[in-house]
Amino acid sequence: MLEGRARIQDTDMPLKMQSQATSCASFALDLFDVTDCKSIAAHIKRDFDKRYGPGWQCVVGSNFGCFFTHKQGTFIYFSLEKLCFLIFKASAFP
């Protein structure tokens, strides 16, 4: 696992889920090259889908913008090493 600590910028996730998000990101960075953001994001998304049910989204990179609607209690944005991570569960529209 990476020695660096994640810096959480914003979240509404429970603490246990926040810890899972940062741990999963750290593990993914051990598995994949830091430039392979797509594989890192896919790994995190699959882990969250398996643990917490389908519908999770993950964006990984060093420069991105976004606008989205999420289910309450399922959002986190943090940085680890030189990458930023955005994980959330999409909100269903009626």
UniProtKB/TrEMBL annotation:
<keyword id="KW-0206">Cytoskeleton</keyword>
<keyword id="KW-0963">Cytoplasm</keyword>
<dbReference type="InterPro" id="IPR037177">
    <property type="entry name" value="DLC_sf"/>
</dbReference>
<keyword id="KW-0243">Dynein</keyword>
<keyword id="KW-0505">Motor protein</keyword>
<dbReference type="GO" id="GO:0045505">
    <property type="term" value="F:dynein intermediate chain binding"/>
</dbReference>
<keyword id="KW-0282">Flagellum</keyword>
<dbReference type="InterPro" id="IPR001372">
    <property type="entry name" value="Dynein_light_chain_typ-1/2"/>
</dbReference>
<dbReference type="GO" id="GO:0007017">
    <property type="term" value="P:microtubule-based process"/>
</dbReference>
<protein>
    <recommendedName>
        <fullName>Dynein light chain</fullName>
    </recommendedName>
</protein>
<comment type="similarity">
    <text>Belongs to the dynein light chain family.</text>
</comment>
<dbReference type="GO" id="GO:0005868">
    <property type="term" value="C:cytoplasmic dynein complex"/>
</dbReference>
<keyword id="KW-0966">Cell projection</keyword>
<keyword id="KW-0493">Microtubule</keyword>
<dbReference type="Pfam" id="PF01221">
    <property type="entry name" value="Dynein_light"/>
</dbReference>
<keyword id="KW-0969">Cilium</keyword>
<dbReference type="GO" id="GO:0005874">
    <property type="term" value="C:microtubule"/>
</dbReference>
